[in-house]
Fold each of these.
Amino acid sequence: MLIVQKYGGTSVGNVDRIKNVAAKIKSYWSEGHQVVVVVSARSGVTNELIARAKSISAAPSEREMDMLLATGEQETIALTALALHSIGVPAVSRTGAQAGIITDTFHSRARISQLTGGDIKERLNEGKVVIVAGFQGISSESEITTLGRGGSDLTAIALAAVLKADICQIFTDVDGVYTADPRIVLDARKLNHICYEEMLELAASGSKVMQSRSVEFAQKYGVPFEVRSSFNDQPGTIVKAFEKTMEDALVSGVALDRTQTRVTVGDLPDSPAAFAAIFDALGESSVSVDMIVKNVAPIPGKANLTFSVNTDQVGYAEKVITAALKKLGAGTFRSSGEIAKVSIVGVGMTSHPGVAGTLFRALSEAGINSELITTSEIKISVGIAPDKADLAVRSIHSAFGLDK
Amino acid sequence: MLIVQKYGGTSVGNVDRIKNVAAKIKSYWSEGHQVVVVVSARSGVTNELIARAKSISAAPSEREMDMLLATGEQETIALTALALHSIGVPAVSRTGAQAGIITDTFHSRARISQLTGGDIKERLNEGKVVIVAGFQGISSESEITTLGRGGSDLTAIALAAVLKADICQIFTDVDGVYTADPRIVLDARKLNHICYEEMLELAASGSKVMQSRSVEFAQKYGVPFEVRSSFNDQPGTIVKAFEKTMEDALVSGVALDRTQTRVTVGDLPDSPAAFAAIFDALGESSVSVDMIVKNVAPIPGKANLTFSVNTDQVGYAEKVITAALKKLGAGTFRSSGEIAKVSIVGVGMTSHPGVAGTLFRALSEAGINSELITTSEIKISVGIAPDKADLAVRSIHSAFGLDK
């Protein structure tokens, strides 16, 4: 088999962990598999480099930041190759450029435009393990680029696609995808499999396992992958295309996102044009908006718009909205506190009515008021008070029988 | 003017020093010069990386070590570019590969085979300062290579040659080339200029300012360069081709090398063939030999050979010599303790008789016995007891009036 493995920053965090990773790679290689390994920078290294850059320049150039940050992965590939050599496994490292990861020219958030794989196939055929630097590529202008958050997962999945790997394993510090965060719900269960759509909704709903982008890429190219722990040998969760049998599970998981803040734009003209002006302005400024509710205001002909934005972006959203309101000549901006977004996700939902009923009954029995609600084909999210978040997740998890 | 500057690891050792270097670069750029800057890894970084590699593998692959070590300079170029940006100087960084530093395929000690300069000229013409990673290149097989010790100096001098720079400045932690080590001789003087040949003899005689290799390269391509301090604004020492006026100085400097050990091969057949067998074996094993003396042994038809080898190489030299003696069927190996090599260097020597006389009179008056002697056109070296080394340097410095 041809296996692509990815080890995150925690898994290669220090010399001992790199040796552990090498031993794990050897166990697959010894069974006769061809192994391509993608590694991240050692945990902490990227943050150290960023801190050093920020102490020099408040707004560092993205091109130079990419030049700087790419060193983190380059260090890890060399050390991992050395660790394999020292236990008798032939191995060779490849930077993103050497692995033929060609990107566009948008520094710090480059997109892969072409992936040749370089000479990886030839090296595999020589019996070598090939270690590739995650997160980085080379632009069409021969500049070092980085792929942004979750970039190493993307490198692994893209390589798996282009090399036609039999499996892609994302080794991380969690055992797989759970029905809920095990730190909140003690009897949360690890899922054996989940489809891309559910994984995407979970990622968008605050589950930190993987960035949406890599899952979307896997979905687009039909690359099944497994999320599993680098610290034990348990099987993880396989993420793959939807299969009919998956419908048995009504709801796959409960996700929690604590990073939202509720924002209200009051006394707007009650017209689609006014709402469009607000959302267009936010969209052009790349502020993501979620859980939109429109209320009629006490003043006739006026309406209030309430929605959630990422807490990090509230200040920026206020600037953008205030400017838009000035143009409109009406309306007021108000930020009304953080909220927690609790979501249930499951492809089974589409064919089973009554899911929303079960959700709201669970919240009601726990005495939790939902302030904002949003739904998709396979997801229902509610915005609630942050101090009720854990209780809500536990109540919902139990109401859907996810512990069984 | 087009200026190539090189800043060593101590000069860019931390964020504050990088900011100082940026300010210094700005002062040249502001005067309208085009500036290309070569930087080393921050001091300590290379050693840290080596230690990390050694804790994984006792004999790390040179290819992977180059992959690892090249990250050190890549970090510095990005940080230096950011420091320039933050004080309003347009700057862009270039890895060795991007600067078109093409090398052969000998990892850890690659030689530059071609230097294109990449797009440096275009960037300079846009008014930008170009920051190039020293010490590294890219091989004809697209592998990252490093140039070995003193590699960053070589990068700077090679770039100065190919860009036809008006001057090449090697900024370091010393003020220039001195008539003797100022830690030993308090009234040692900084030389204003020195010729390549003298600089080479000084480097070979233990002066730590620069590696011979970079000086040889500068000599071959006729690149004058200046060695000066990055911590002050004093002019340094200009190293250039010999000019007639330089002959005024009989002796330019006194160098000291404490890294030699005296080795004796005793009871050899007194024949050139036997001596050749010993030196051929050492030569094939890349053990450098210096200060050779032949003594007739007490046994008729036998001779003793005494010479100095680098202390690091004594164990290896013993192995090589013992094997050669076995083939010869005669002779014994004996290492007879460390010696200090004190050398006087000066192009003026060739045309002034009596230099050796002054040297030995100085030693004699100081009560120092010289155990080994070797001479070249522009150098005389003596091997003496290590505990007499400082006294010898001071006595000789004064005897030649170098303090005046």
Note: Chain A is about 35% helix and 30% strand.
Amino acid sequence: MSESAYDKLVAHARETALLTSTQDLLFWDEETYLPPAAGDYRAEQVAYLAKLVHARRTDPQVGEWLGECEADGLDKADSVEAADVREMRRDFNKRTKLPPKLVEELSRTASLAQKAWRDARQADDFASFQPHLEKMIGLKRQEAEALGYDESPYDALLNDYEPGETVANLTKVLGALRAELAPLVEAIVASGKQPPVRVLERDYKIAAQRTFGKRVAEAIGFDFNSGRLDVTAHPFCGGAGPQDVRLTTRYDAQEFSSAFYSILHEAGHGLYEQGLPADRYGLPTGEAVSLGIHESQSRMWENLVGRSHAFWKHWFGPLGEQFPAAIKGVELDDFYFAINEARPSLIRVEADEATYNLHIIVRFELEQALLAGDLPVADLPAAWNEKYQQYLGITPPNDADGVLQDVHWSCGLIGYFPTYTLGNLYASQMFDAAHDALGDLDEQFAQGEFQPLRDWLRTHVHQHGRRYGAPQLAERVTGKPLSHEPLMAHLRAKYGSLYGAA
Amino acid sequence: MSESAYDKLVAHARETALLTSTQDLLFWDEETYLPPAAGDYRAEQVAYLAKLVHARRTDPQVGEWLGECEADGLDKADSVEAADVREMRRDFNKRTKLPPKLVEELSRTASLAQKAWRDARQADDFASFQPHLEKMIGLKRQEAEALGYDESPYDALLNDYEPGETVANLTKVLGALRAELAPLVEAIVASGKQPPVRVLERDYKIAAQRTFGKRVAEAIGFDFNSGRLDVTAHPFCGGAGPQDVRLTTRYDAQEFSSAFYSILHEAGHGLYEQGLPADRYGLPTGEAVSLGIHESQSRMWENLVGRSHAFWKHWFGPLGEQFPAAIKGVELDDFYFAINEARPSLIRVEADEATYNLHIIVRFELEQALLAGDLPVADLPAAWNEKYQQYLGITPPNDADGVLQDVHWSCGLIGYFPTYTLGNLYASQMFDAAHDALGDLDEQFAQGEFQPLRDWLRTHVHQHGRRYGAPQLAERVTGKPLSHEPLMAHLRAKYGSLYGAA
């Protein structure tokens, strides 16, 4: 029997994955162990592999094989193979639709804009970054036009990270979230309560933090036989193949929660990666479906599990054994309050579970307005500060800690921010569904039982890869369309009891 | 101006180096940090990159560019460019001369033979390995014929590792070495003296071993800004680019010298790699010239420097500060004697400076006889044991600790072993030349001054890459052809004073 067009596509994609997984290793190594002087050559290695990968992915032969599959109706069935063909087509079109000149211009502009952004933040000088951002916004409009969209140019960009999501839907859901979240945060502030956060700022030896973090990651189901935990400056979950998932974190010997929750967060991503079907590695049905779904897995383990009272009912004892001096005399309820501090603050990456999504909503609203041309880049800092005052009740004292704090826009990442909040929304919605299916999760956590939840996620989320779109997958799992209600219910319950602020 | 054939060759080779350096990273990672379950996929990544690299290196276009350069006489000059063309031609011919079917057969046989070797060593059962070795020897004969040679088929294989060396020359030099070395070892044994080796087998904390090893590596000139030190099972010096040289070692918390001398040995290799001209990375003139010259650098720092009395005159104080409990009450002279213990033993990789080369000479003589057909594989174990008795005065009690101890022959590495002894010979010969040029090296070492030697090696050896052949380079550096005399003089002086055995 001769090899079918589908078989050829699969073989080609699997071979490409040998290169992309090698790129992943180059990246992981760069962020963990690369000697300082080796950065320039590493950039050359990365660029060369990117060239090889791009050539393979835009090879006209791929388009022909896809055409053959489609002529045979292979993309129409309700099967993993059909899903592969449909998703490969989407990827191929996306990659071949952009004029090479635009791709090159985007890449050059991003490179210059990132440098300009770094300098501008350093000098607290938005004006020097402004022309770069203006140029980038213009190019992103061109990109949206080239990619095509039904309703809004923003959709075209959003779909790069969150296939199937629309700005119309997000505006509705995030609007509803904001309307209920801002008053909750206000009530938290008004309560005047202060959790005893100093218990987290004691002597926590790094080696012991690592041991404890690995132990918890293992307990929630992360497999260190197919993974690792290393140190980096900006924590991420990487890897270099189907059985090779690498978590990273950073430690502060005087602070417990930062490294610990990084580990839990990245382990949540890692569980997703380890739950993807290894035998489909390199194919769409062996890949994560969207950034929002990915983030839902990390946020669920970090916040809904790892900041729950039930979780610490089990782990507070082992914690005390690991850090006897630091935990001596600390009560479980005080510790629980400390790791759930909520407080409006300026910096997104340091924000807590309650305020985080308001940071995202600010960015989501502003980048839409920028792309639509409703907000000139020159007016961005004022608009930023106004929204921070309105939603979070604080005004940044300078642009470095305000509009210049994130790297994203300088890289051309427009439509990326909302995936963080989508992650929180999906996490709560899926967690409720898991609760309905598995019984009292709190009871299980308090007993140290995390496998039922992990296995449920594996069955209902991880193993499907990109078989379903992100909104479709979430609706299959939870039986409901995206809503702000599960997240708000969770936040109200938690902060109501902690701050008396429901 | 249009790009010349030489320019095209250079650009092509540099692009290939982006892939080979990535292969190097895959290898380093596999030996250091790869999760246990990720081995199978890593093998696929390695095989795929090897395929890409092989296709580039045997691309007929390379042969055409080389032809153009040669037609212009570009290979004739006394310049780095001419050396590049000559060496690229040699590499290209070597890679294109072997019939693909033979390459495939060698690869398959090696894979099966390595597995069979592992099982045979485990079971102490040479007979089960014998057919694999017979097949391999037959294939290596075919390889030698395909590669071509002037005098002996062995030369063709030897030249893969030691370009320009001949079996005739090695037979002469190694024969002379054996004739003087065996009696020296006999005299050491006859002296009945025992160094106090137990001082090395105390409590040496691994973290402190690492700190001390890095400190010494840095002091001899290894640049950790362009390098690293990690842990592995079988120490090696690897890396992933021109500014990225990675040492590895393994630690035993109850033994000092094994990890320390691994670090010094690999740092010697590392100094060579860091001394190659970075701007010619990927070109022959940016590469190490031969295994023997490479080994001369590691052996010089490990043995001639690191096991000298002068070296410890400087470092014994810091050692005592690093390991106060272990070194308490130990005299410098006793420590010096302990790290220079000489004693005939069965296992090559555990052998000391005095006996090591006898292990190599056994293998060199036997593999020649195997290839020439003078020794049937069935008779190899008996021949092995006889030579061990004759040269080292001991007979292996079984084949596992005798003829089955090394992996090399199962991989098809015939002609490789002598490069270890070449390293020791070149090291002594170059060290004498450095001594003549730099004045009393012992005096410098005792003051902690290692930069003059490193810089001298950089100027006279490292920076030339493959500009000269190995024998030519050594003769340029030392003014003399290869000889056993400097090494014998060094060993006689050291062991004469330690054992009274000159």
Note: Chain B has a mean pLDDT of 96.
